[in-house]
Design goal:
43% of the residues lie in helices and 13% in strands. The protein is globular, with a radius of gyration of 20 Å.
């Protein structure tokens, strides 16, 4: 069993990573149904929450069926971050996660996200003060360091633990790498193997097959895996990993009916949550993976990602079921 503070999780839990315009309530619900053990919201700007910006406030929406759920926030200034903790508490999440890893320029240039990796003392101070501000467990998501020459993740993780951080998720790249090259899990294993560490250490980055999840568990000895891009349009990834762990075999391919049903439910939940225009727009990125591997599918996919009317997208789903009814999903 793995514990984040008082929250009990199974051995080697699978966590849905916070992803901008991806980890919204509809997608989190689908991932939860398919075996995600903890889900995280999209990251939320502390400044946006304090200004009561509509988009930031909407990201606080969480539902009972998602639990345990973490709300992730980012910022680089102490007072706004503390005010944000107070606001987030009112949504009653199970966890508050601090984003110290986002590499995007508009976040980094404000000293937030991975930008704070240039000032480890501030990173530790912010964490310490936020821990004092709330009874909810505070966790951290970060990267190995700012660049290859400044990797001090073993020391950083220990310091965060010492000020009260209850778990740490580490992406196996530096900020300088962005998402290029391969994630390096060895430094994450060094954090886990530090005899002073006693909080869960979760790995993140390039876990895109059940075999890689098993490698992270059995070779690198980490406490769990945080899954990001591999889950986009593929909420079944969590179920696939767990099946592989249990049986050593790959789960049977997801049927066309299941894919269409998930896409249809995803779109409907998105419309119910954020309205037709945004619901249609923000669900588009998932369709490539929902229907990956189906031959001669380009025209249907194009219609799905260019239609502005929900009715047109739903009609395309129906057409796909009819057109490809005899299609056997390949391994």
């Amino acid at each position: 069993m793995v514990k984040i503070d008082h929250i009990e999780l199974p051995d080697f839990p699978l966590l849905l990573a916070p992803m901008e315009d991806v980890s919204d309530p509809p997608f989190r619900a689908l991932c939860k149904e398919q075996g995600a053990d903890v889900v995280y919201t999209e990251f939320i700007s502390s400044e946006g929450l304090i200004r009561d910006a509509a988009k930031s406030v909407q990201k606080l929406d969480i539902y009972e069926k998602e639990r345990p759920v973490g709300i992730q926030i980012f910022g680089a200034e102490l007072e706004p971050m503390l005010q944000t903790v107070d606001i987030v508490e009112r949504s009653n999440p199970d966890i508050i996660d601090i984003n110290f890893g986002c590499p995007v320029k508009k976040v980094v240039c404000k000293g937030a996200g991975a930008g704070i990796l240039k000032d480890i003392d501030l990173m530790v101070k912010l964490t310490a003060e936020m821990v004092k501000r709330t009874k909810l467990p505070i966790t951290v998501k970060t990267r190995l360091g700012w660049d290859q020459d400044s990797i001090k993740i073993v020391e950083v993780a220990e310091r965060l633990q010492d000020v009260g951080c209850k778990a740490i998720s580490i992406h196996g790249r530096t900020r300088a790498q962005m998402y290029k090259g391969s994630a390096d899990w060895k430094p994450i294993a060094q954090v886990k193997n530090n005899p002073r560490m006693h909080i869960p250490v979760f790995g993140n980055g390039d876990v895109d097959t059940p075999e890689k999840a098993m490698e992270m568990r059995d070779v690198y000895g980490l406490d769990g895996a945080m899954i990001g891009r591999a889950s986009i349009g593929n909420p079944w990834f969590f179920k696939q990993v767990k099946h592989f762990f249990k049986t050593g075999q790959h789960l049977s391919p997801i049927s066309l009916e299941e894919r269409v049903d998930a896409a249809r439910r995803h779109l409907q939940m998105a419309i119910d949550w954020k309205g037709e225009k945004l619901g249609v727009f923000e669900t588009r990125r998932h369709y490539t993976n929902y229907f990956k591997g189906i031959p001669h599918f380009k025209d249907y996919r194009t219609r799905m990602v260019t239609s502005d009317e929900a009715a047109d997208v739903f009609a395309t789903f129906d057409e796909v079921l009819e057109k490809f009814s005899d299609y056997q999903v390949a391994e």
